[in-house]
Structures are given as structure tokens and as C-alpha cells.
Amino acid sequence: MNIQDLGIMVGLFIGSVLLLGFLGMAVKIPRIIYLLVIVAELGLIMGLRYLSRKQAPGFLMGWLSFTFIQPRRLAVGPLPTPAHDKKAKNHRV
């Protein structure tokens, strides 16, 4: 398993337990919810191990970047050019 994928999973686990802890201060949360979070995390880790054997390394990071970071459309057209160049402005012939 890729170390970045494992780091995301550990961060997700810590974040979910902290969120449940903060919510537990406001409302009563049954203990079964904590058990469901742990089982879901273990299921995600097992699924990620299976997918890492079948997909390219860094599967989770690649999927997250494709889903949330990369633009949906490619801009096709001329490259933007700077209006004024500082060197040309300071250099007089």
C-alpha cells in the first residue's frame, strides 16, 4: 500500500473519531456508531489494499486529484503573453 494512501486513511480515521467526540459533547451518540466507524475504516483499508494490487501505485491520491483538483475542461487557445516586459522597458537603445 502506498504511504500517502495510508496517511489519508489514518487522517480520515483520526478526523472521524474527533468529529464524533465533538458531536458527543452536544448530543448523545450511541457506541454502535463508533463501532461502525471502525468497521468502515477497516473495510476501506482492505478495499484500498485490494485496489492497490489491481491499480497503479498511488491509486487513492490519483483518484482524489482527478475528482477534486483537476479541471473538467481543458482550455484550448493561444497562450497568454505578458503585456510589457520589464527588461525591455528598462533597456533603451
How does this structure look, described?
The protein has helices at 3-26, 31-54, 59-69, 86-90. It is built from four helices and no strands. It is elongated. Helices cover 69% and strands 0% of the residues. The N and C termini lie far apart (61 Å). Helix 1 runs antiparallel to helix 2 (31-54). The protein is an all-alpha fold and 93 residues long.
Notable characteristics:
93 residues; single chain; mainly alpha
Which overall shape is indicated by the principal axes computed on the Cα atoms? elongated
In terms of structural class, how would the helical and strand content be classed?
mainly alpha
**Total number of β-strand segments?**
0
Q: Distance between the terminal alpha carbons, to the nearest Å? A: 61 Å
Please estimate the helix content. 55-70%
Order of helices and strands: HHHH
**Major β-sheet profile:** none
Unreliable spans are none
Number of helices: 4
Note the topology.
Blueprint: H1 3-26, H2 31-54, H3 59-69, H4 86-90
Helix pairs in contact: 1-2
